[in-house]
Write a structure and sequence with these properties.
The chain is of the alpha+beta class and 533 residues long. The chain has three domains: 164 residues, no CATH class; 94 residues; 209 residues, ATP-grasp fold, B domain (D-amino Acid Aminotransferase, Chain A, domain 1), CATH 3.30.470.20. It contains 17 helices and 20 strands. The strands form three sheets. Strands 10, 11, 12, 13, 14, 15, 16, 17, 18, 19 and 20 form an eleven-stranded antiparallel beta sheet that branches. A hairpin with a 6-residue loop joins strand 14 and strand 15. Helix 1 crosses helix 8, helix 9 crosses helix 13 and helix 10 packs across helix 11. The protein is globular, with a radius of gyration of 23 Å. 47% of the residues are buried.
Length: 533
């Protein structure tokens, strides 16, 4: 966070820390109860706050609409005694809420609606939602009244910071997320140290860097160890979705003289290739000094792919593999997250699962209780085996969380850890392609009501009978920003891609976004818009 002297984001005082830990001690019993008896009464308070650096959040087109991504949490209402309170900065269109409620199989929408509460702060600013709530004592009181018995409730957030810890304390309920005191392990530097502890392969490099001189020293030491190295990556510790990454290219021939060699690397530092539009070396180095960062090798290979593994450490300390994905990356440096395919390719799926489990055990030993993701790069030379390199830990929910939760809740299926495949209750495999950035300028002509008309007339719904089709999210971003999120589910990855292509074609036909006439920005997977991975 960038706010200076902000009492909400300051470190917890000892008495606050003690209160927070008392609340967290409730989670194991609550977890046991809910999982032993899914019909047990319980309440989830969902606060989808984007508690990141404000300058980074401002780079996201339609950032306020990302609060809608956790609307898949409404799937919890399939349990007859579950209650959900969904808090937002601005109102969610009633038709969007009804769209999700009607996806609940076997539960009348009216019954689910009675167990759903909605509360809006009526504050469109880009500051985190958690801070908006904390600044409104009456809103806090309304939430507490809605919760009722706090022993049966928990707080669910996108990411956990001191803001969310203070919100949990104010509400008197535990935070079902990583302890903010452990968030270092989700930074780029902390990730590298976790990989070292786990004995997991990761790129050569250096962490906990803050100054220009430290960056130059690291780049020089890296090329001294790897003379064949032509490129390196400089990353901001607390960035996300690849937007805090910069590509460094070594000069073609470094001088032998030490001073000249150092000067050549320093000069090349001012020709960094940035993922974030408008970024410059001076502004980048200023951010690095504030939040820290790393330098690591740009991993080479004849084939290079970017999969990820999603895991969970339960309140009981168990480590669970949730899913694997192949990430779809774009942007000027090819490092910005724009979507994913589930599951990851079978050729390396079990390899990255095994490596992720090692990291998960390290995080569990550190006390992490959370959903989190681990990004990898997998490479191979021609004809050789795939090799996995752990890249970073995202100690929070991510862009792969909501589509998988939707698949899980809609089908009632589970992941087979032996194969990494998802099977429905019928024993049938399911895959998907998901993105938050399906966009075209002509989509700005669609209101939420219009999209619902298109879904019905064009048959773009998820079909419970086949357990395939398209789910939409971030619908509130359509009219203003011309973009929407989709999760396209099929029996195979190829079928999921076909659903996506059909969805794009139908929306384009409906809105006139025809290539060459309507202003489509690129190919089906060439979105070019930053999302929050």
């Amino acid at each position: 966070m960038t706010t200076v002297h902000d009492p909400y984001t300051a470190p917890l005082a000892p008495e606050e820390r003690e209160a927070f830990m008392r609340l967290e001690a409730r989670l194991p019993d609550l977890w046991r109860t809910i999982h032993a008896r899914p019909d047990a009464p319980h309440t989830s308070v969902v606060v989808p706050s984007l508690s990141f650096d404000l300058e980074e959040v401002k780079k996201i087109e339609g950032a306020p609409c990302y609060e809608e991504r956790q609307l898949f949490s409404l799937m919890r209402l399939r349990h007859p005694n579950a209650r959900v309170l969904y808090v937002t900065s601005m109102p969610v269109h009633p038709e969007i809420v009804e769209y999700y409620l009607h996806l609940l199989v076997g539960v009348p929408a009216s019954h689910a609606r009675r167990r759903l509460g909605e509360l809006c702060m009526w504050d469109p600013t880009s500051e985190p939602l958690s801070r908006k709530i904390l600044r409104r004592p009456r809103a806090l009181q309304r939430i507490k009244q809605w919760i009722g018995d706090p022993s049966l409730a928990y707080l669910s957030c996108f990411n956990a910071t001191n803001l969310e810890a203070r919100l949990a304390i104010a509400l008197g309920i535990p935070l079902n997320a990583a302890d903010p005191a452990l968030l270092y392990w989700g930074t780029k530097s902390g990730s590298r140290k976790a990989f070292q502890r786990a004995g997991v392969a990761h790129p050569a490099g250096f962490e906990d860097l803050r100054t220009e001189d430290e960056i130059v020293d690291a780049l020089l030491e890296l090329v001294a160890r790897r003379p064949e190295l032509r490129r390196a990556v400089v990353k901001l510790d607390a960035s996300f979705s690849g937007e805090g990454n910069a590509i460094f290219s070594y000069p073609p021939a470094l001088p032998e003289d030490v001073a000249a060699r150092r000067g050549a690397v320093r000069d090349a530092l001012f020709a960094l290739e940035f993922s974030a539009p408008g970024e410059t070396t001076p502004t980048f180095l200023e951010k690095l000094e504030a939040m820290g960062g790393i330098v690591e090798e740009f991993v080479p290979g004849d084939e290079v792919r970017s999969p990820s593994v999603q895991m969970r450490v339960t309140p009981l300390g168990e480590t669970l593999v949730i899913s694997t994905h192949d990430q779809v990356l774009g942007g000027s440096t090819g490092q910005v997250y724009i979507g994913c395919r589930f599951p990851a390719d079978a050729e390396y799926r079990l390899l990255i699962q095994a490596e992720a489990e090692k990291v998960g055990r390290v995080l569990a030993d550190l006390g992490v209780v959370s959903r989190f993701g681990i990004d990898f790069i997998v490479t191979r030379r021609a004809g050789g085996p795939w090799q996995a390199h752990a890249i970073e830990i995202n100690l929070r929910l991510g862009g792969t969380t909501h589509p998988f939760l939707a698949l899980q809740f809609l089908t009632g299926g589970t992941l087979d850890p032996a194969t990494g495949c998802f099977l429905t209750t019928r024993g049938e495999p399911r895959c998907y392609f998901a993105t938050d950035t399906l966009r075209a300028p002509s989509y700005r002509g669609l209101l939420a009501e219009d999209l619902m008309d298109v879904l019905v007339s064009r048959g773009l719904q998820f079909r419970p009978s086949t357990e395939t089709g398209t789910l939409f999210h971030m619908i509130g971003a359509l009219s203003q920003f011309g973009k929407v999120g989709v999760t396209c589910i099929g029996a195979t990855r190829a079928e999921a891609d076909e659903h996506y292509a059909a969805t794009v074609a139908q929306l384009d036909q409906e809105t006139g976004a025809v290539q060459g006439r309507g202003g489509r920005a690129g190919g089906l997977f060439d979105h070019g818009v930053m999302t929050i991975e």
